[in-house]
Amino acid sequence: MAVPASVKKKVQNLRREIRYHNHRYHVLDDPEVPDAEYDRLMRDLQDLEKAHPSLITPDSPTQRVGAQPVSAFGTVEHKLPMLSLDNAFTEDELNDFHRRVIDRLDIAVDSQIEYAAEPKLDGAAVSLLYEKGQLVRGATRGDGTKGEDITHNVRTIPAVPLSLMGKGFPRVLEIRGEVFMPLAGFERFNTEALAKGDKALVNPRNAAAGSLRQLDPRLTAARPLDMYVYSVGIVDGGKLPDRHSEILSVLEDWGMKVCPERRVVTGIDGCLEYYRRIGEKRSALGYDIDGVVYKVDRLDYQRDLGFVSRAPRWAIAHKFPAQEELTTVRDVEFQVGRTGAVTPVARLEPVFVGGVTVSNATLHNMDELNRKDVRIGDTVVIRRAGDVIPEVVRVIKERRPKRTRKVKAPAHCPVCGSDVVRIEGEAVARCSGGLFCAAQRAEALKHFVSRRALDVDGLGSKLIEQLVALERVKNPADLYTLTREELISLERMGEKSADNLLASIERSKQTTLARFLFGLGIREVGEATAASLATYFGKLSPIMEASEEELQAVPDVGPVVATRIRSFFDEAHNREIIQALLDSGFSWEETEPAAISTNGPLTGKVFVLTGTLEGITRDEAKDRIQALGGKVTGSVSKKTDYVVYGEKAGSKLAKAQKLDIATLDQNEFEKFLSDQ
Ligand code: D41
User: Fold this and answer.
1) Residue 221 Cβ < 6 Å to ligand 1
2) Can you list the pairs that 410-415 forms with residues at least 24 positions away whose Cβ atoms lie under 8 Å?
């Protein structure tokens, strides 16, 4: 039965529109319409194709996942071999490369060679063959001359166009690039896999390579893969620009995704600067890279340089230091952090990893330690990525010696001897010493004197650390016993600053109960909770005596927070310090216990504020929301009801839009409040 021309037209239009949005979303990372709109277009197309199957073409956006798994991979011969890359691990090796380029080209030694520089993605190299703009074949690199036919799988990768956009592309065009799994997708996939009881992917690189080697394309389609292209292979029936950087630009025009970090740099200095910059940015890129690649930008130079064995003389990979290495565990000790978190730390046989010598690595917490089954004497994989704290990744069980020692969790804080407690459902064990524990002192003090707590002007971090190191100040109460003479005798402390500091210490005693409570640094008791407690009870002593049940009656206080408050006031040291503070002359206005309205018009509603609001500070906006019973949190999640945004709003606003959360600009917000 003939298909009406109007239907054909409609199908064509839908495909064009879907391709356009696909490109905006997956290649440009700049979606124009909400997902729901895209889904609608896709459904319309599917419906029409279902009603008129004769209209289905292989490049239709509905045809990314072919119905049938393949039974085996075919072999693909790379008519132009997919070359490999030489590596440079040091600056010297990079200099050697540059000198060889200049020597071979027989140009002046100080010639300013332009290099196209790009990150070296840690994924899987693939070749995509386009004929008349249609994707006809995808292949793995294999050994460089023969790879596997993975057409059915590359078709499922959203960043791979099924047909090229625009015009002017050669009749035959082979495009090469790297398929990779972005870190966010990798994490998400693993979380979901583990929840379903499936096996987790080992790392993003294996994940990318493994995903491409699935017989069933539906499995590949379920993996969050992405692709950046970095060169061309066979080109027939058309011409490309004569610089690498410009070739990438035309590929981009034709709808391919190229790495946004790519740059053209000049000479060895430009290369080194680029290497340093990408190194700094590495952890924020969102995908794994293991170095950068420099390619002589001019193609005539590339041709003159040629290649040796399987690698071009015009390109080199400048590798970052390995991020994972093997070493042995000498001991496991427990460290107490700022918040009292007691963390197992492996003492290691020193090893060079991630560019530095590492002799300690975190084991995060006891659950992690037990899960990884790390024992003293074990050989372990250590990972140090960027500035991240080195961690023990896993044990090489095959190398476990006959006699290893298991690690036991400590019952008492190694620093102050207080009980170590672990709240149910939490991974971290904590020292209950609070303000008494030396490990927590400096941080607790900094918090106590901070602007939003007791607001002691002129008492900076350095000074606090000095006083703690001298053991002159062990807890907030000690601050109120400091004398003028003592202060003057400190490093970098003049008479004037000492007097000013004493005055502000004195001033801080006149405060509010909310500030005082917040300043104590009870875990989970932030400003809002402290304010709630203060309003609800009106006085300090009933809070100190309240049962967990009574505490839970306070808005904002759930079972976890109630437990925290109770165990804080149960600790004798904390009560002593509070008494000492009161004795030193702290005072605030006591109020009658007041039940906070738990049924304001905004009760149960969660707000996030982002960007700069005009004529109203964040705090004021927060107060107004809270006064109506609403809650203000810092990050956007599915639980957020409204995002209020001002000038220069960034990722929070974007996230709200992505999650379809109501957003209010300043005018809408004002109106919203007055409507309540
Ligand atoms: O990002 C990469 N992994 C990458 C790999 C890149 N950015 N550029 C590359 N360029 C080449 C040449 C110079 C041979 C065209 C490569 C690779 N090759 C490559 N990938 C796997 C083997 C070789």
Assistant:
1) no
2) 410/334, 410/342, 413/336, 413/340, 413/342, 413/437, 413/439, 414/333, 414/334, 414/335, 414/336, 414/342, 415/336, 415/439
The residues, ordered by sequence, that sit 6+ positions from 514 with a Cβ below 8 Å of its Cβ are: 527, 530, 531, 533, 534, 535
Task: Tell the residue nearest (CA) to atom 22 of ligand 1.
Answer: 84
pLDDT digits (tens, 9 = 90+) for 234-254: 999 999 999 999 999 999 999
Ligand 1 pocket member 84 (CB < 6 A): yes
Query: How far lies 663's CA from each of 103, 607, 668, in Å?
Result: 61, 10, 9
Q: How far is the CA of 582 from the centre of ligand 1 (A)?
A: 68
- Best residue among 101, 140, 141, 178 to mutate for probing ligand 1's pocket (most ligand atoms within 8 Å of CB) is 178
Write out the H or E segment, with its range, that includes residue 343.
Answer: strand 341-353
What was the pLDDT predicted at 233?
96
Q: What is the pLDDT of residue 631?
A: 79
177 near 230, Cβ under 8 Å? Answer: yes
Is there an atom of ligand 1 within 6 Å of 418 CB?
A: no
Per-residue model confidence as pLDDT tens digits over 219-234: 999 999 999 999 999 9
For every residue of 104-167, which 3-state class applies, written as one string? HHCCCCCCCCEEEEEEEECCEEEEEEEECCEEEEEEECCCCCEEEECHHHHCCCCCCCCECCCC
**Chain centroid to CA 552:** 34
Of the residues 8, 9, 79, 120, which is catalytic?
A: 120
The protein residue with its alpha carbon nearest to ligand 1, atom 7, reads 120
Q: Is 121 in the pocket of ligand 1 (CB under 6 A)?
A: yes
pLDDT reported for residue 623? 73
What is the number of other CB atoms lying within 10 angstroms of the CB of residue 156? 22
**R_g of the chain, CA atoms, integer Å:** 32
Q: What stretches in the chain show pLDDT beneath 70?
A: 1, 66-67, 338, 386-387, 435, 594-599
| pLDDT at residue 598, as a whole number | 61
Residue located nearest, by CA, to atom 13 of ligand 1 = 315
257 is annotated as an active-site residue: no
C-alpha–C-alpha distance, residues 461 and 249, integer Å: 50
Tell me if 118 CB under 6 Å of ligand 1: yes
pTM of the model: 0.61
Q: What is the DSSP letter of 92?
A: H
Q: Quick check: 520 and 526 in contact, CB under 8 A?
A: no
**What is the full DSSP assignment across 490-511?**
STT--HHHHHHHHHHHHHTTB-
Backbone dihedral angles phi then psi of residue 383, each to the nearest 5 degrees: -125, 130
**Rounded Cα distance, 563 and 539, in Å:** 20
- Spatial contact of 120 and 282, defined as CB atoms under 8 Å apart: no
Integer Cα distance of 381 and 329 in angstroms: 10
How much distance in Å is there from the Cα of 316 to the middle of ligand 1? 9
232 lines ligand 1 (CB under 6 A): no
Distance 232 CA to ligand 1 centre (A): 11
